[in-house]
Please model this.
Amino acid sequence: MKLNARQLRTTKSTGLQKKKLKKNPIYIIVDNVLDTYNVGAIFRLADAVAAEKVILTGLTETPPHTRIKKASVNTTEWVDWEYIETTVEAIQNLKLRVQNIKIVAIEQSSKSVPFDKFKYKFPLALVVGHESDGVSEEVLKACNAIVELPMFGVNKSLNVMVSLGVVLYQAIQHFTSVKLYKSSKQKEKGIN
Model:
């Protein structure tokens, strides 16, 4: 099922429709993102990659909110989400509920690796943080890894949704390449 922007703005999903949608084992943890347009855009991105769930934490606004709805083109109706008070709690909950999940923060840090050199594994949770303060040290310590996008100009960082989008599509590309490689190796060996 593919809906255009006009259809999305006026459509409400049913639980049954949502359950039928194929989801990728991707979780997005939104850590104290204050701009409701960023939050809405993250929902739109989550829908684009068929993420399993968006987890909103801290001071992040939650749906229903008119600016979130507008920026998300109403994808909040189609993307599963929940609110958890702290990001550390959200990470701990995911580690208990999702076996072998890798938690990766998108942040500038002395411990970060370039986003395009990291070996992404699924299930995967990506953490994005506050527009000015980023992801807190406490949250970074709870993550398995930190990835960073290079900045070549005078600006220190990219918009939170843009950074998330770049990393999400890199992760999906990496995962797809690995999956195709493994599949071709199995075919060579006669394993189906």
